[in-house]
Automatic annotation (TrEMBL):
Full protein name: Alkanal monooxygenase
Family to which the UniProt record says this protein belongs: To bacterial alkanal monooxygenase alpha and beta chains.
Biological source species: Streptomyces tateyamensis
Alphabetized GO MF terms: monooxygenase activity; oxidoreductase activity, acting on paired donors, with incorporation or reduction of molecular oxygen
Keyword Glycoprotein in annotation: no
Length: 356
C-alpha cells in the first residue's frame, strides 16, 4: 500500500503491512531549553529539518501549543512556511493544528497558501484538544462557543472550504478559501483516545495517535480506527501513524539516554503541576528532589520512551511497530540541548536504515 500522501516513503528497517516500506518521521516542538531563547530554538528546528531531509526521514511535523515556555511552535503554519523555504523534498505538516482554536476558513486559507508555496509537500494534521489551559483557549477563541465536542462540525466545514463544495443554499456557499489550488493538503486526524480514531475511520482519513503521552490507549485506539474504517477517495485501507518518544546516545546505553530523557520528564511533570517552563538541563533533572509521587510519575513517563544505544532504539521502534501494526512511526526527542537532539535523530536514522 502507498502512504497516506500517495508516496511509499524512504526504504527503512521495517516494513508496513502488505510489504511496503515503513517510513520514519519526526515530530518537533521547537524545544526551548533552559538557558536558551525561542529564537535559538527555532534556528535549531530549522537546522534539524535540513538534516532530517538529508538523513531520509519522511515527514517533519510541528505542533501547536500555547502558554508553554518550553515550546516555540505556537503557530505551525508560520513555522512550516519557514521550514519549507529551507528544505526541498521533506514532507512538512502540522501535528497538529488544534481545530477548536481557529475558524475553519482561516485554516483553509493558511494551508492553501502553504500548499501553493510548497506544492505536494504539506500535511494538515488536526487535533480536537485546545493544546493549552482553559483561559488561553478562551482568549484564542474570543468568545466562540466552539468546543472540542463540536469537532465533527468544524471538520466538515473545513473540508467544504478546502474542497470548495458547500451545497447550494449554505450560508458559505459563495465564499472561497484563497488561495485554492488544484490539490489540497492531505488531512490527518490526530488523537490520544478513541474519539478521533472512530471519526478518522468513518471518514476514511489517515490517523495519527499520540503514543508518546497516551501509550495505554494506543492499541485500543488503533483497533477502533481499523474497525470503523470505511474506504474513501483518500484511502482504500487504514493508514495509522504513531508518535513515539525516542532518545539515542552514541555511548553509555540506556543509562546515558535515560539521563537525557529525564529532562523532558521533569518538564512534563512541571507542566502537569501547572508550572510550565523551559526544558530543564539533564543535571537539573538529576538533582531535583522528587517526592515519591513525582518519582513515580517520572518512572512511568520514562517507561514509554524508547531509549539507549542506536541499535537498542532501532530494535525498540521495530518491536513497537510490529506490536501496534502501525504503518509509520514518528519519533520525537523533546530533550534539552540542540546538539543532543541532533545526535539522537541522526543515530536513529542510521540505525533504522534510512537513506537520504
Amino acid at each position: 500500500m502507498s502512504g497516506a500522501d500517495g508516496q511509499t516513503g524512504s526504504e527503512v528497517r521495517g516494513t508496513a503491512r502488505g510489504g511496503a516500506p515503513a517510513p520514519l518521521s519526526i515530530l518537533d516542538l521547537a524545544t526551548v531549553g533552559a538557558g536558551h531563547t525561542p529564537a535559538e530554538a527555532l534556528a535549531a528546528t530549522t537546522e534539524l529539518a535540513r538534516h532530517a531531509e538529508q538523513w531520509g526521514y519522511h515527514r517533519f511535523w510541528v505542533a501547536e501549543h500555547h502558554g508553554m515556555p518550553g515550546v516555540a511552535s505556537s503557530v505551525p503554519a508560520v513555522l512550516l512556511a519557514h521550514l519549507g523555504a529551507h528544505t526541498s523534498t521533506l514532507r512538512l505538516g502540522s501535528g497538529g493544528v488544534m481545530l477548536p482554536n481557529h475558524a475553519p476558513l482561516a485554516i483553509a486559507e493558511q494551508f492553501g497558501l502553504l500548499e501553493a508555496l510548497h506544492p505536494g509537500r504539506i500535511d494538515l494534521g488536526l487535533g480536537r484538544a485546545p493544546g493549552t489551559d482553559p483561559a488561553t483557549a478562551a482568549a484564542l477563541r474570543r468568545g466562540s462557543s466552539d468546543e472540542a465536542d463540536d469537532f465533527p462540525r468544524l471538520l466538515a466545514e473545513l473540508l467544504h472550504f478546502l474542497d470548495a463544495d458547500f451545497p447550494d443554499g449554505h450560508p458559505y456557499a459563495k465564499l472561497s478559501a484563497v488561495p485554492h489550488g488544484e490539490h489540497r493538503p492531505p488531512i490527518w486526524l490526530l488523537g490520544s483516545s478513541g474519539f478521533s480514531a472512530r471519526l478518522a475511520g468513518r471518514l476514511g482519513l489517515p490517523f495519527a495517535f499520540a503514543h508518546h503521552f497516551s501509550a495505554a490507549n494506543t492499541v485500543p485506539a488503533l483497533e477502533l480506527y481499523r474497525r470503523y474504517f470505511v474506504p474513501s477517495a483518500v484511502l482504500d485501507e487504514p493508514y495509522a501513524l504513531i508518535g513515539v518518544s525516542a532518545v539515542a546516545v552514541p555511548e553509555g546505553g540506556a543509562e546515558a539516554a535515560r539521563y537525557l530523557a529525564a529532562s523532558a520528564g521533569l518538564g512534563m511533570l512541571r507542566l502537569r503541576q501547572g508550572r510550565p517552563g523551559p526544558i530543564p538541563t539533564p543535571q537539573e533533572a538529576a538533582d531535583y528532589p522528587y517526592s515519591p509521587a513525582e518519582a513515580e510519575f517520572l518512572d512511568s513517563w520514562l517507561a514509554n520512551v524508547v531509549l539507549g544505544s542506536p541499535g537498542q532504539v532501532a530494535d525498540g521502534l521495530e518491536e513497537l511497530r510490529k506490536r501496534t501494526g502501525a504503518d509509520e512511526l514518528m519519533v520525537t526527542s523533546h530533550i534539552h540541548g540542540h546538539q543532543a537532539r541532533l545526535t539522537s535523530y541522526g543515530l536513529i536514522a542510521e540505525a533504522y536504515g534510512l537513506h537520504g
